[in-house]
Amino acid sequence: MMRSSTLAILGRCHRLKLRSTKESVNSGARSLSSSVPTARIEELDETDKATPPHQIRWNPKRASKLIKKIADASSHTKNDRKDQHGRLLTDVTTTKGDSLKVKGMAPSPSHAIFTGEASVPITSKLRIITPQDDTPQGVWPMFRIMDETGIFRDGSSDGYIEHSVSLPSSSNVEPKTGQNSSTAKTTPFDLDLLRTSLLSQYPVYKNEIEESFLLQPSPSEYPDTLSKNTLLRAHRHMMRLRQMDNILQNAQRQGRISFYMSCRGEEAIHIGSASALKLQDTVFAQYREAGLLMWRGFTLEQFTNQCFSNDLDLGRGRQMPIHYGSRALNYHTISSPLGTQLPQAVGAAYKLKLSALNRRMTNPDSAEEEGSVAVAFFGDGCASTTDFHSACNFAATLQAPVIFFCRNNGYAISTPVTEQYAGDGIVSRAPGYGMAGIRVDGNDIFAVHAAVRAARSYAIENSAPVLIEAKTYRQSHHSTSDDSTRYRSTEELHSFKNKSDPLKRFNAFLENQGWMGKEDFASIRDEERIDVIKAMTSAEQRPPPKLETMFQDVYHDIPPHLERQQEQLLSHMKKYPGQY
Question: Which residues, 6+ apart, have CB-to-CB distance to 472 below 8 Å?
């Protein structure tokens, strides 16, 4: 009864809202007609006009479209805007997908635009907001290191600057002779020289550059790249991930596998966070984080074996495609229900905390050992589930070392963020739970890496949870069962593809450093494409799992009732051999 009455109240509110919207649209059209004669305001459909008031249906998409047209028309007559500090920004353009561009300012943008025309101020300062800190004024800032051009920021054009913080200026640093500091090239593939060069050019990121694992060679050779160069491995993995997505999605369209989900446009989140974590950190992914598993050593053969559910599939063909898992790589198997991984991650983190305390009590020398965290990945839509609330509350009250990593990619299947929440994204909820939080540019691999590394250190040192919100854009359909053109325009999609693609940004950085060029990128793309096709062809030709595996893995020893079921099944198949 309570739920039905609540829905009835919401329905009435929607009808009242529709009437109010219609009135504001008509009044807005009248007020704009004199100052903006070219503005076109769409009226409500004739069908809606003729509908009795008690039968009017609220269409939020249509209403928001009408309101947006009024706002767009108004923006042509008033271009002056102020930031959260009251500073005037002139000649601001807010075309979908563009960053705010201000005449007379440095090339680096001060703000970034994401789905729903949300303007987010950019900061060059890496800072996790703890429960003891004052929350940011206005919109929470987004931490970024590298702009879309592949050039590091210098901090001079940040859209959010704390009054008590003074960032070191890069303008006082002398660039190398005959080179521009923003594009100074280094000896190809030498991470030590690259790190030194970046430090001299961008002192604002001193800690991030010195501590970044991406900019440090591995002590031993990576088996999948036969190199110690961590940065080039990260780049190749992003290329590999995109090629795997392209080919396996096409395989589903051809009927060769039953289902697939692509992570196109979110690769920097995968590789940036994976490279900042340790193998002992337990990962609870949702279903769009294959890159973390890839970084830990999951091979293309293992990915394709799972998607084709053959005899080498670690899950023995019991899961849908892309529901990967690996005990050896500390990556829990994906589960389809939304949000279930969040409270599970808190439980795992609490167990890690108790185990660490027990080790210290029994062996004081173990206090020097590095701790571990649990990491839960989820989307913006998942943050609307009850499991999200339960997990955050448990984590904060139990002081569990867990990282909640939200991929805010603009859409929860077909629901845009404008209909998902009315507040400032997801990270702004952290103070309410009494936990730390940080917002990061999810298309910047360096920023994601730095944020996750800092969050991991905070969670271990304070035995406390951290909420990370990574702003990005989902370039693919939600899954192969989805057609995203039904709820977003192709213009929007192409705009974000062109201006905020994480792989394009990483490519630009390597080009600026003189490490690679377009021919190198094409060569790597072809190599990875061939490797994926080889793995897929091999997986497709393998037989399915053996029948007896149906009764394994549930119990350590098969109980009598499962033995009877197995005998009945084999007897039935023997009786009707032509049917199976």
Answer: 265, 266, 268, 269, 407, 408, 409, 410, 442, 443, 500, 502
Phi, psi of 484 (to 5 degrees): -70, -15
β-pairing verdict for 466-471 and 402-408:
parallel
pLDDT tens over the chain, length 580 residues: 444 555 555 555 555 555 555 455 455 444 434 333 333 223 333 333 333 333 333 344 444 544 454 345 444 433 443 433 333 333 333 333 333 333 333 468 999 999 877 799 999 999 999 999 999 989 999 999 999 999 999 999 999 987 655 555 444 444 443 334 445 666 779 999 999 999 999 999 999 999 999 999 999 999 999 999 999 999 999 999 999 999 999 999 999 999 999 999 999 999 999 999 999 999 999 999 999 999 999 999 999 999 999 999 999 999 999 999 999 999 999 999 999 999 999 999 999 999 999 988 888 776 667 899 999 999 999 999 999 999 999 999 999 999 999 999 999 999 999 999 999 999 999 999 999 999 999 999 999 999 999 999 999 999 999 999 999 999 999 999 999 999 999 999 999 999 999 999 999 999 999 999 999 999 999 999 999 999 999 999 999 999 889 998 889 999 999 999 999 999 999 999 988 8
Which residue in this structure is represented by tokens 């939020």?
60
Whose structure tokens read 């693919």? 476
3-state secondary structure of 518: helix
Which amino acid makes up residue 63?
Answer: A
Q: How far apart are CA 330 and CA 279, in angstroms?
A: 7
Radius of gyration of the chain (CA): 26
Q: Cβ distance 142 to 123 under 8 Å?
A: yes
Separation of alpha carbons 336 and 470, rounded Å = 22
Cα maximum dimension of the chain: 85
Alpha-carbon span 406 to 439, nearest angstrom: 10
Burial 199-214 (b: 16+ CB within 10 A, else e): eebbbbbeebbeebbb
- The neighbour count for residue 174, using CB atoms within 10 Å, is 8
How far is residue 544's CA from residue 547's CA, in Å, rounded to a whole number? 9
- Token output for 27: 């009044």
Sign of CA dihedral 527, 529, 532, 533: negative
Among residues 275, 301, 398, the alpha carbon closest in space to that of 343 is found at 398
Instruction: Write the DSSP string, 323-362.
Output: ---BTTTTBPPP-SSTTTHHHHHHHHHHHHHHHHHHHHHH
Q: Which of 266, 314, 253 is nearest to 448 (CA)?
A: 266
Whole-number Å distance between alpha carbons of 225 and 216: 15
